[in-house]
Write a structure and sequence with these properties.
With about 190 residues, the chain is mostly helical. It folds into 3 domains: about 80 residues, no CATH class; about 40 residues; about 40 residues, no CATH class. It is about 65% helix and about 0% strand. It contains 8 helices and no strands.
Length: about 190
């Protein structure tokens, strides 16, 4: 009994599938006739975006679409399908312009807090802003903080001049350093 039911069900599905395939083939052939009627005499066949979209959709829904295709090559439809796939994912992964914009008041507050408390880093200011109910990331806080400029450090030349003025012991060490540098023939910048 079960096998008879399975046999009847599979033959019914086959009949429905063949009917749907036949309807798809008729639709494809009619579309090709319309495209050919649209063509002007002696000119190259021009397909519109709708035609390309039609064949891409039909190729996804119907297995035997290649058998009824006459006006273009099946490879062309596959290329359109790939192009549509690339365009979709390019559109899907387009940039969303980064983080949401931070208001000028919050930026001014971050600058003021970093100038008033020079020892506070981005984590501390971020925590204080969160206590105030301002939702902002720590990296954004670090971006808008004012970093005080440190004075430039002195060069070796300045260091040696400053120590040559001092006591005799410092002069002796500096002379020894100069003699060592000339003995090793180091470049003048290092000496």
């Amino acid at each position: 009994m079960w096998t008879i039911f399975r046999l009847l069900f599979s033959s019914l599905c086959g009949w429905v599938r063949s009917r749907a395939a036949m309807q798809a083939e008729i639709l494809a052939l009619r579309h090709q006739v319309l495209v050919l009627q649209r063509r002007t005499r002696g000119r190259r066949l021009r397909l519109k975006s709708f035609d390309r979209l039609f064949w891409v959709c039909l190729s996804r829904l119907w297995r035997d679409w290649r058998k009824s295709l006459r006006i273009i090559k099946p490879e062309t439809v596959i290329a359109w399908n790939r192009k549509a796939f690339r365009l979709y994912w390019t559109w899907k992964s387009r940039s969303q312009q980064g983080r949401p914009a931070i208001s000028s008041e919050i930026r001014a507050l971050i600058r003021h807090m970093s100038l008033a408390n020079p020892r506070w880093g981005a984590p501390r200011i971020h925590g204080e802003l969160q206590k105030l109910g301002i939702e902002i990331s720590e990296t954004s806080v670090a971006k808008y903080m004012v970093h005080p400029r440190r004075p430039a450090s002195q060069s070796w030349k300045t260091f040696l001049k400053n120590h040559m003025r001092g006591s005799g012991r410092n002069r002796l060490l500096c002379r020894t350093h100069s003699q060592l540098a000339s003995a090793l023939r180091l470049p003048r910048a290092l000496a």
